[in-house]
Write a structure and sequence with these properties.
With 125 residues, this protein is of the alpha+beta class. It has helices at 4-12, 21-29, 111-114, and strands spanning 31-36, 51-57, 60-64, 72-77, 82-83, 97-100, 104-110. It has a single domain, classed as Jelly Rolls, CATH 2.60.120.10. The chain is built from three helices and seven strands.
Length: 125
């Protein structure tokens, strides 16, 4: 999804400001928009972690399942916050679950794919 709107958004976003224009274009190509409705689960603890997200609008809560009783909310992420660092850490499993607190729009990136450039050079190191 290499749209001008995505390129403009990412180039102004602090998380991506220090990567080269070529790397930014590559990131845009690897991104897609993901919409999630209020109360829906994006992923669950223990699922395979292979993506990360930037919250474009809405709110996403990070939760830890409790041993007994309801899940525990540990953090709520909103506009322009990054979600999903677990794809960087071996065993590549989510350590928490997420739930949309309201209808939300996320920019989704395929973690392992975006971690390297086409020539194999890591972007994030």
């Amino acid at each position: 999804m290499n749209s001008p709107a995505t390129t403009d958004y990412l180039s102004a976003y602090a998380f991506f400001v220090e990567i080269s224009e070529d790397d930014l274009a590559f990131m845009c190509e690897c991104s897609s928009t993901h919409e999630i409705k209020k109360e829906r689960i994006l992923f669950r603890q223990g699922d395979s972690a292979d993506k990360f997200y930037v919250v474009r609008k809405g709110r996403i809560s990070l939760q830890i399942p409790a041993i007994m009783g309801p899940t525990l909310d540990i953090q709520t992420l909103g506009k322009d916050q990054v979600l999903g660092w677990s794809w960087l850490i071996s065993a590549y499993k989510w350590n928490f679950q997420t739930k949309a607190e309201e209808d939300s729009e996320l920019l989704q990136f395929e973690g392992p794919h975006t971690g390297t450039m086409r020539a194999g050079a890591p972007i994030w190191l």
